[in-house]
Design a protein that fits this description.
Elements: H1 3-24, E1 28-33, E2 36-38, E3 42-52, H2 66-69, E4 79-83, E5 92-97, E6 103-109, E7 115-123, E8 130-136, E9 143-147, H3 161-169, H4 182-192, E10 198-205, H5 209-219, E11 225-229, H6 242-256, E12 261-267, H7 272-282, E13 287-293, H8 297-304, H9 311-322, E14 326-330, H10 333-342
Parallel strand pairs: 2-8, 9-10, 9-12, 10-11, 12-13, 13-14
Antiparallel strand pairs: 1-3, 3-6, 4-5, 4-7, 7-8
Helix pairs in contact: 4-10, 6-7, 7-9
């Protein structure tokens, strides 16, 4: 048996023990719904079921220190019911169980109007009628925006790694700052393409989703679907590959939303340029522009131990510059906006 499989079984055993202990103490299932997406005839429902104390607030409903977001008691095999409206007024359109980590990610064939819509989730033995926001993409939309989060729109890797860790684990989320100019850039992208859905694609953990949603709203970034990941063992690997998560998610978006041309935004601290360059090569004519935020020297050192982008990142950016895809790279949102305006991507 592989080490990864052993780790996954150990995690499952630990989670099962936690569930038994907390259930005996009166903890009940609570649903955390994540902003998802879909089309006018099929949407994805994304959520997680956790065990919480009966008198505890709904998970994710209040701001907490970052380290608290990393600890949760997920409930595998929980029965989740999806309705079109609260209570008896809503048609039940899905009954499904959460996976081994308490997640639900399920397609639902359902006719909905374009725009942000709510479905309602209930879990047997616990929460009822929890709103689950879904971004329904209009069939007339022509563009979609995919954005990384850390160091692209949210300042994360400040010059000293221990300060970055302090910011994430201890500092109040109210004090976290956007990358300069990025809210304005995204506002201009939406002004130019008002029907464009927005997707925030990150290797961050789902535990941080509620805090990220509050951050996006607070700094004026557009509401979007969150596409995060779970950090634990999979049974085939000890840790999930962040690069593969982004690549696979982009491919699925392209398959599910074939009428969209994509505007991709990331940074050059890790692997965004490589992922985006590969995606553009695999989907000719489907990428309108790629914007890469250039990290400062201290940020690069904190990210990868080098004073600049890795050789693989430099090669990817070079390939993009030589391709037919509009490519912008600059240290902040204002400079990126000027380049994209010059290229006719934004007005």
């Amino acid at each position: 048996m592989s080490v990864a499989r052993i780790a996954a079984r150990a995690e499952d055993g630990f989670n099962a023990a936690v569930v038994r202990v907390l259930s005996r103490r009166g903890y009940t299932p609570r649903v955390v719904a994540y902003p998802s997406y879909g089309t006018v005839d099929r949407v994805r429902v994304r959520a997680r079921v956790l065990l919480t104390a009966p008198d505890a607030p709904t998970p994710g409903s209040v701001a907490r220190r970052g380290w608290r977001n990393l600890f949760s008691a997920e409930l595998p095999g929980a029965v989740v019911r999806v309705r079109t409206a609260p209570g008896a007024d809503g048609e039940e359109v899905l009954v499904a169980r959460t996976d081994r980590s308490g997640y639900l990610d399920a397609p639902v064939d359902l006719a909905l109007e374009p725009g942000w819509q709510d479905l309602y989730l209930s879990v047997d033995g616990g929460d009822a009628d929890v709103p689950a926001p879904v971004q329904v993409v209009a069939p007339t939309a022509t563009h979609g925006i995919v954005s990384d989060i850390d160091d692209t729109v949210l300042v994360t890797m400040v010059p000293r790694p221990h300060v970055a860790a302090w910011n994430f684990l201890v500092r109040s989320e109210q004090r976290r700052k956007p990358v300069p100019g990025m809210p304005e850039l995204y506002g201009r992208l939406r002004d130019t393409h008002p029907d464009a859905p927005v997707f925030y694609l990150s290797t961050g953990a789902w535990n941080t989703a509620s805090a990220l949603s509050r951050f996006l709203h607070r700094v004026g970034l557009p509401q979007g679907s969150l596409l995060l990941t779970d950090l634990g063992p999979t049974g085939t690997a000890l840790l999930r590959s962040g690069r593969e998560h982004k690549a696979a998610t982009l491919r699925r978006l392209a398959e599910e939303l074939p009428h969209l041309t994509w505007i991709l935004v990331g940074d050059d601290g890790q692997h965004d340029p490589q992922v985006y360059e590969t995606f553009a090569a695999e989907h000719p004519g489907r990428v309108a522009a790629i914007a890469v935020r250039e990290l400062s020297v201290p940020e690069q050192v904190a990210q990868n131990g080098l004073p600049g982008p890795t050789p693989a990142t430099r090669r990817a950016v070079g390939e993009l510059d030589r391709s037919a895809v509009v490519t912008a790279h600059a240290p902040d949102g204002a400079a990126l906006a000027r380049q994209l305006q010059d290229a006719g991507v934004i007005g």
